[in-house]
From TrEMBL:
EC number(s) recorded for this UniProt protein: 4.1.1.23
The reaction(s) this protein catalyses: orotidine 5'-phosphate + H(+) = UMP + CO2
Protein species of origin: Pontimicrobium aquaticum
Keywords: Decarboxylase, Lyase, Pyrimidine biosynthesis
Record-annotated Orotidine 5'-phosphate decarboxylase domain positions: 16-254
Name of protein: Orotidine 5'-phosphate decarboxylase
Pathway per the UniProt entry: Pyrimidine metabolism; UMP biosynthesis via de novo pathway; UMP from orotate: step 2/2
HAMAP family in UniProt: OMPdecase_type2
Superkingdom, natural source: Bacteria
Length: 269
């Protein structure tokens, strides 16, 4: 998917909502456990109920890898279902990969070619030769971890080196990498006060913003400092939407929560 297609979908739906598909078998409605593939059954119900309200879905691969081959097969079925039935929706493999040269190329092939995701999250710690292999894929996007929503982000990301915070060095340096126009960035919603400085460095890039909902991030604050002329934001909510209910009406409850966010977004666009 091109950036222009993503922007068009945002304008069409008046939404920049991303829904995280982080499936925990201990939290889904217990009757689904009788299904041959309870993970996919859960995801399909969520997608069917919310696809008109969001522009992106983000499965965190850990929630699939934890269940071995069956979990990976459920992830494959989920992305194939999305690509077949809702090709207009942007898909994010939240895998946080990144390794040197050939290994990164293989990671990229796994998510972009085999599974067919539009984007993948990547850790920048090993530098450009661990990221550039992802950037060579046409109409695919690499979402670089910049300033994350967890408390441990302060351990390294905001530390100053030669007078500049590390996350700012990551942002500035990444702009010099080959095919950097294919980069997006992760900035946590709980770090909204940093967004003004971030937009000074990367004014036009899309930001994936987790942390709205269960982690306490504020949508209005994020938009105040992070929105650009093309919106430039993908606001992710996972637990706050998909686990709104664990009863038989879980998909409807998820849709209601997604609608609340979509309506707030429509007012902000």
């Amino acid at each position: 998917m091109t950036t222009e297609q993503l922007i068009a979908e945002i304008k069409k739906k008046k939404s920049f909502l991303c829904i995280g598909l982080d499936v925990d078998l201990n939290k889904i409605p217990q009757y689904l456990l009788k299904e041959d593939d309870p993970i996919f059954a859960f995801n399909k119900a969520i997608i069917d109920a919310t696809h008109h309200l969001c522009v992106a879905y983000k499965p965190n691969t850990a929630f699939y890898e934890a269940y071995g081959i069956k979990g990976w097969q459920a992830l494959e079925k989920t992305i194939k279902y999305l690509n077949k039935n809702h090709p207009e929706i942007f898909t994010i493999a939240d895998a946080k990969r990144g390794d040197i040269g050939n290994t990164s190329t293989m990671y990229a092939k796994a998510f972009f070619e085999d599974l067919g995701f539009d984007s993948v999250t990547v850790a920048p710690y090993m530098g450009k030769d661990s990221v550039e292999p992802f950037l060579t894929f046409e109409d695919k996007h690499t979402i670089l971890l910049a300033l994350t929503s967890n408390q441990g982000a302060f351990d390294f990301q905001t530390k100053t080196v030669d007078g500049i915070e590390l996350y700012k060095q990551v942002l500035k340096t990444s702009k010099s990498w080959q095919n950097s126009e294919n980069l997006m960035y992760v900035v946590g919603a709980t770090k909204a006060e940093y967004l003004a400085d971030i937009r000074q460095i990367i004014p036009n890039s899309f930001l994936l913003v987790p942390g709205v909902g269960a982690q306490g991030g504020n949508l209005q604050e994020v938009c105040k400092y992070g929105m650009n002329k093309n919106i430039g934001l993908l606001i992710n909510s996972s637990r706050g939407i998909i686990y709104a209910s664990n009863d038989n009406n879980f998909a409807k409850a998820a849709a209601n929560k997604a609608l609340e966010l979509q309506q707030q977004m429509a007012e902000l666009i």
